[in-house]
User: Fold this.
Amino acid sequence: MGGADGEPELDLARVLCALGELDDPGSRAFRVGGGDWPLSGLVVRRGAEVHAYVNRCPHAGHPLNLRPHDFLTVDRSLILCCSHGALFEIATGRCVAGPCAGAALARVPVVVTRGYVLLAEGVPAQAPDD
Ligand code: FES
Assistant:
């Protein structure tokens, strides 16, 4: 079903953040889904690109950030894990330096609609199985 302007209705349960909440480049944490295992992740914007990943480092499984919404290096060119310093490419989630070099963050498929970043259709709003 569409909205009055012909755009699809927003599924609010799948909204991760508003595009305007993201600096360029910038990042934000999100949590969607209920129950014991909500999906906890990060959204990163760089130019026209928006990427999302599960907030779990492939090295030791820790959350990447210490401070809320703070996932990028000082120059904002890479994603940083604050636990032991692993660095990840924004566009691929691949670790390019640190203790898990060659591993990758788990991507969360997203779409940008009506100025919002949404979990893509069919992606469960819960933490992935190990
Ligand atoms: S848990 Fe991320 S680098 Fe160790």
User: Anything to note?
Assistant: Residues 70 and 104 are 19 Å apart (CA to CA). The chain is about 0% helix and 30% strand. The chain has one domain: 12-119. The pocket of FE2/S2 (inorganic) cluster is lined by residues 57, 59-60, 62, 81, 83-86, 98-99 (CB under 6 Å).
